[in-house]
Amino acid sequence: MSTALMSSCVLLMAALLAPWFNLRRKLNFYFAVSMAYVAMWLLALHLALCADQGIGWWRVLGLLGAFATGFFLVIFRVIADPLAGWLQWVRYGAAYIVAGLVLAIVALGTDFVQMERSGWVDGGGWFAFYWWVKIGLLLALFGQVIWGLRGVHGVVRLEVQIFLLGGIGAMFLGNLLLAAQLWWGGGEWVAIVPLLMMLLVLITGWTLISHRLMDGRQLVGSALGRMLLLAVVMIVVWATKEMASVVLGESSAFLVAVGVGLWFAAEFWPWLGLWIQQHAYPDKIGRAAQNIAKQELHPEAMEDAYINLLQRWANCPSAVVLMRSHQRLVGAGIDIPVETPEMQLLQKLGWVTPERLERESERPEFPALRKLMHDHNLAVLVSSSPALAMVLGLAVSRSLKPYTFPQIRELRHLAGIMESALSRAHYLMKTQHSDRLATVGLLGASIAHEIRNPLVTIKTFVQLLPKHYHEAVFRDKFFNLIGDEVSRIDRMTEQLLDLAAPRIITPRVIEINLLLSECLALIRAKADDKGVILQTNFTAQPNLILADANAVKQVVLNLGFNAIQAMEQVKSERWLKFTTRNDADMIELTIEDNGPGLAPEVWGRLFQPFHSTKSSGFGLGLAICKDILSGMNATIRADQPKEGCGATFRIQLPCPPPSS
C-alpha cells in the first residue's frame, strides 16, 4: 500500500467521523467535505503512480487540483460569514472559479503530461503554466484571506487562521509533490509528502472540531513536533530494519523494526511534548503564583494578589475566585450551590469555555453554564481539582481572542497552586484565631485575679466613703485611686483584646535598617529623658526583609521602651544597642541593654501571657510580640540570663525570595 493510498483512507475515515462530534455545528460538515476533497486528490495520486494507465489519472489529479483554491476560499467565507447564502459565497470566489476552469481545461489537454519511451510520465509544456498559476492563486488566496480578516475577531478569526494554515499548507505540499514527480523525477522522499499532507489536515481538523482550541502559533508548534516525531521514528525504523535484516528475514526484520518504532514513539513523544512545553510556553505565571504563596499573606490579601496576577497574565479586565464553603462556591458576588447540575458537569469536565460549549454535543447543563458565563462576563471557568474546592473565572480578553487549550492547561496548573496556597492561608488564619481564643479561655482565672485586685481596692474605698466623705485628704486619695485602678483595668483589657483579636499581616519587601532608623527616632526622646545612650551596628547587606513594616515597628518599639524602663535603677552608664546581620536566608535583629537582665525563673516562661518582668506590667506585651512575629514567619527569643549582663532579644526576620 502506497503512502498516498494510506493517507487517503485515513482522511476518508476522518471525514466520516467529523460531523458526529457535534451534529448541530455546520463547520464540522464543511471541514469533513474538505478532508474528503484532499482524500480524493491523494487517491488520484495513488492511481496515477500505480495504475497501468497512469497518464489518465495524472489528468484527473490536475482536474481536482484546479479548483482547490476556489473551494478553500468558499469554505473560508462560510466560516467567516456563516449567515451569508451560497450565492454570496460563490460570488466572492468567482475569480478563483474562473481560474479553476482554465486550469481544468489545461489539465485535460494532451500537453499537460507526456509519456516518455521509458514509460516515465513527464510534465508537458502546459504543466509549467498550470503549476505557476496554482502558485499565484495560492499567494492571492493568502493575501485575500488576510485582508478579509481585518474586521473579524474572536474565535472566528482564530478558526479562519487555522483553516488558512492547514488549507494552504496542504495545497503547497501538493504542488511540491507534483513538481517533484513530474519535473525532478521523484525519489523515495516523495513518499513522505502524502503523510505530511495527511498529518497537517488531521491536526487542522482536530483543532477546528475538538474542544481543545489552539491558535496558529500553537498549531505550528504541534505540527512541527509531530513531524519531528515522525521523522525520528522513521529513521529508527529504517536503522532497526537494516540491522535486523542481517540476522533475520526481510519480513521478520520489518516486524521487529515496526515494533521498535512504536516503542520508541511511545517513549519519545512524552519527553518531546514536555520539552516543547518548557521552551515554547515557559511557566512564568506558575513561578509568580508560587512566589505569592511563599509570602504567607492574609487570605484576602493573597486572593487579591492572585486576581491581579490573573488579570495581567490574561490581559482581561476582571477575574473571579470562587472558594468552596459549606457546599457552596462563593466569591465576587457569585453564590452557587456545589450540587447544581452545571457545577457537577464543571467538576467532571474540569474547564469550560463558550467555544467548548459550542463545539461539543449539546447537554442539558449547557444552557445554565452559558447563562452563568454571560451574566458575569466570563470567557473561561476552570476547576482547581476533581473535588471542586475552587473555581477560577476570567473575563473576555481585551484582545477579544478566545482562551486556547495551552492557556487553559496553564490556568489549571495555576488553579492547583492557588487552591493549595489559599486553603493553607485560611487554615492558618483559623488556627491562629482559635489559638488566641483558647489562650484567652485558659487565662480566665488569671484575668479574674488581675481585675479583682483593683476592684477590691475600689470596693473598700466606696464602703469607707460615707464615713470619711468630709475629709479632704480622703476624698483626694479616693479620686486618684479610682482613676489609677480603672486605668489599670482599661490597659489590661486593651492588651488582652489585642492578644485575642485576629491580626491582618501584609508582608512587603522593606529595608530593615531604614525601618530601625525610623523606630530610633521615636525612641530617642524617651531615651534622652532617661539618660539612655542609643547605639547601632547595622551590618546586614543586603538588608531587605519580607515583613509588615507596622508590625515590626510595634515589636521594636515595645522592646525598646521595655528596655529603657528596665534600666531606670541602673546607676552607671545606660545604653541600648540595635544590631543587624545576615544569617542564611534571614536577617537577625538583636536588641540588647545593660540593665538588670532577666531572672532565671522568668526566662523559661518569658513569652507566655501574664508572666511579667515588671512589677507594674500584665505580662502580655512579649506574648503579643511573639504572636505578631509568628504571623510573618519570624521568630523571637531571649538569650539565657548571665550574671552581670543585661537582656538580649534576637529576632529572625525572613528575607524575600530571590525572584522578588
What's the average pLDDT?
78
* Major β-sheet strand ordering: 5-4-3-8-7-6
Q: Number of domains in the coordinates?
A: 5
How many helices? 23
Unreliable stretches covering 5 or more consecutive residues: 614-619
Strand portion? 5-15%
Helix content: 55-70%
Structural class, by secondary structure, is alpha+beta
Number of strands: 15
Give the overall shape.
elongated
> Whole-number radius of gyration?
40 Å
Please tell me about this protein's structure.
- The protein has 660 residues and is of the alpha+beta class.
- The chain has five domains: 3-194, no CATH class; 215-278, no CATH class; 284-430, Beta-Lactamase, CATH 3.30.450; 443-500, Helix Hairpins; 508-654, Histidine kinase-like ATPase, C-terminal domain (Heat Shock Protein 90), CATH 3.30.565.
- It is built from 23 helices and 15 strands.
- It has helices at 3-17, 26-50, 54-66, 68-80, 86-92, 94-108, 125-148, 154-182, 192-209, 216-244, 250-280, 284-294, 299-314, 341-349, 354-359, 366-375, 405-442, 444-468, 472-500, 512-529, 549-566, 600-603, 621-630, and strands at 113-115, 121-123, 319-325, 328-331, 334-337, 351-352, 378-383, 390-395, 508-511, 532-538, 544-547, 574-583, 586-593, 635-638, 648-654.
- The protein has a six-stranded antiparallel β-sheet with strand order 5-4-3-8-7-6, sandwiched between helices. Strands 10-12-13-15-14 form a five-stranded mixed β-sheet, with helices on one face.
- Helix 8 runs antiparallel to helix 9 (192-209).
- Mean pLDDT is 78; it is low at 614-619.
